[in-house]
Model the fold of this input.
Amino acid sequence: MEDDHDIDEEEFEFSRNYFLAKESGGKSGKKSARKLSEIDLLDEQDLRTEVSKIEPKHEKEIASLISSYKSLYNEWAFELRYGFGLLLYGFGSKKTLIEDFASTALTEYSVIVVNGYLQSINLKQVAMAMAEVLCEQLKLQPRSSGGSLKSQQPFNTRSMDDLIAFLDGPHTQESECFVCLVIHNIDGPGLRESESQHLLARIAACSHVRIVASIDHVNAPLLWDKKMVHVQFNWCWHHVPTFAPYKVEGVCHPLILAHGSASQSVKTAIIVLQSLTPNAQSVFKVLAEHQLAHPDEEGMPIDVLFTSCRERFLVSSLVTLNSHLTEFKDHELVKVRRHSNGQDCLYIPLSKDALEKLIQEINQ
Done:
């Protein structure tokens, strides 16, 4: 009984001290006048360099964990062979694990790798590559119709529907030919659009396709409906936390503790612009100068840009201008947004400082 009494006294004293501290803090405590904007942030490249120097911890435990996953390779390969898709999730980069699985247990497959963590991905090119690989496999089959395959229409001229039909076709009955599609971060920024996910689901459902993918975003399952999960992708979910750093996947994402990384954005833009023609660079400069001169506007209307470029003899037609704009958009140098009056306007997704540095580099 005495012990219980002592415990009650300790709890009472703790509670009393807690509320007294809160009360005194409310009366005499001063609020900080510091602002988040006053924090001196590092340059993104400097911060990435410092992050790379952090020594890993618990290496033995992580190595043992990865070894336990490797013992599951045969089980995963069995699931793939019988028509399931493998979906790996859990904290940590799964890129190295998936690539090791593909090179170790999928030697009988032809493997196509897609890096979903990139900003833009052309799924038609992916489907074309898969179709070409499958075609080469079928030509090696002793009883396949090799002659008819050689006489078929080239894959680069086919529609997406035709490519999917080829991947799903009953080309041979004697032996199985599969193309394995490995997707690092199927929930990445380059694949999150509904249209991209539905195309991937159609590809995954093809009879000659097997899919291995990873997810990391907490809302990734919201990308799919019931049919996509259970019929088309036919996922087998595997929880495989690796605790590995997202070194490669994180390159495309800005760091929270870094400033706008203007220097890094400028370097990237310069590399892209140097690969374009002098006329294209001049067109980009016209747009950049307009954006700096009119910072309050939502962008530059296409017709205004065309008029300005034609007066400077940079383009002779709207077709020529559109070809330059397509290059800019593909490399994400220029984006389009709807003006408040309903007109589409062009803008460069860089800060004022970054844009000024970029123009200086172009003028050199």
